[in-house]
Amino acid sequence: MKELLLHACCGPCSTHCVRALRAAGREPVLFYSNSNIDTREEWEKRLDSLRKFAAAEGVRVVVDPWDGAAWEREVAAGFEGEKEGGARCDRCFRHNLQKAAGAANALGIESFSTTLTVSPHKSSAKVFAAGFAAEKEVAGRVARQTGGGDGDGGAGGGAKSAVFEPVDFKKKDGFRDSVAIAREFGLYRQNYCGCRFSKAAAEARAATRKKDSEG
């Protein structure tokens, strides 16, 4: 089966996505690149969960080292006041997918995608926009490095760069399936997206629910 580099945010989100891709005749290579996660401890817990499922399913895993400081500089700086789902999240999607595009090129894999669309809390349209932007950015970088014209391996002579495949994994009850498979494997399931901002938002929601339940 033809390989596809699949940016993976965690173990549970990878479950349905891996099986859906294989059912479609593709072989996913999981790419764990998530420097947005607020602490190294949390990053490692999610990676352990991912590896547990990957080992059981026989899926290759490629790990991009955690660098929270770089994520803060490149994504969060100046966007600290944004609400969840806003411009900061768009920048985060693009940041992680640029990493995926670069890794796909380095590994000789022709296309990349992401598990992010399995979540009902994330706009697939926004993820797709970030994916295509990442494809264009990395293709331009490759073209400049190789002296090509457009980075598409066309008349300009540039090296061919990985293309983004927009797969909406939440379709056909993808999220519900991911929850069921994660439960079956006993995978650690987090209650916030990953960054310190999403954690604070999750804690605020939990506090509100507790207050409401107490009357």
Brief write-up:
This protein is an alpha/beta fold and 215 residues long.
Please write out the topology.
Elements: E1 2-7, H1 11-23, E2 26-32, H2 40-57, E3 61-63, H3 68-76, H4 87-107, E4 111-114, H5 124-146, E5 163-164, H6 174-185, H7 196-213
Helix pairs in contact: 1-2, 1-6, 3-4, 4-5
Strand content: 5-15%
Radius of gyration: 18 Å
* Low-pLDDT windows of residues: 153-157
- What CATH calls the topology is Rossmann fold
Give the overall average pLDDT.
Answer: 93
Could you state the CATH homologous superfamily?
HUPs
Number of strands: 5
Number of helices: 7
Number of domains: 1
- Percent helix: 40-55%
The assigned CATH architecture is 3-Layer(aba) Sandwich
- Molecular shape: globular
Please describe the biggest sheet, giving its number of strands, its sense, and whether it closes into a barrel. 5 strands, parallel
Q: What string, H for helix and E for strand, traces the elements in order?
A: EHEHEHHEHEHH
Order of strands across the main sheet: 3-2-1-4-5
